[in-house]
Specification:
alpha+beta; globular; 156 residues; 5 helices; three-stranded antiparallel beta sheet; 3 strands
């Protein structure tokens, strides 16, 4: 369980500190080049989920996230028992979900700021995102990898 909690606390803390910094230092809509031609920061208020899906549905998104957090809490011991990858992935998912949940409850929107400027057309329409979104994505990938690498217990 320690790895699960560390991953959750790390991702939540990194997410909230980065959003505090963006809100304090980068006016909404302002742009700051990080790696020209690849990525820049842009302070964006996201009132929905990725690509603005369910925009304006704050309470639905809050309710959905609370259900996700409840499922994670209820199944954490079982998932963590599958190993380090699963524990880390599940912790990242929890931290990312709670990070965006805090934004929705406190501000009514999620603060996003990473924007891709890649030369690859399929990534040019990728939504602006934040550390919580990254934690969720990496967490899901780790969970999938864990599923493929972990052998089922024949005794179950």
């Amino acid at each position: 369980m320690p790895l699960f909690f560390l991953a959750a606390i790390f991702s939540l803390t990194a997410d909230q500190l980065s959003k505090i910094g963006i809100r304090a230092q980068l006016p909404e809509g302002a742009r700051l080049e990080i790696w020209p031609g690849w990525i820049h920061l842009e302070h964006v208020r996201n009132f929905g989920a990725a690509w603005g899906v369910l925009s304006g549905q704050k309470w639905l998104l809050i309710a959905f996230t609370l259900v996700v957090v409840g499922v994670i809490a209820a199944s954490a011991r079982e998932v963590v028992a599958r190993g380090k990858l699963a524990a880390t992935g599940f912790g990242l998912i929890l931290g990312g979900a709670v990070g965006n949940l805090i934004d929705r409850i406190v501000f009514g929107h999620v603060t996003d700021f990473f924007d891709l400027d890649t030369p690859w057309p399929f990534l040019q329409t990728f939504p602006v995102f934040n550390i919580a979104d990254s934690a969720l994505t990496v967490g899901v990938i780790l969970m999938l990898v864990s599923m493929f690498l972990t052998r089922p217990n024949p005794q179950s």
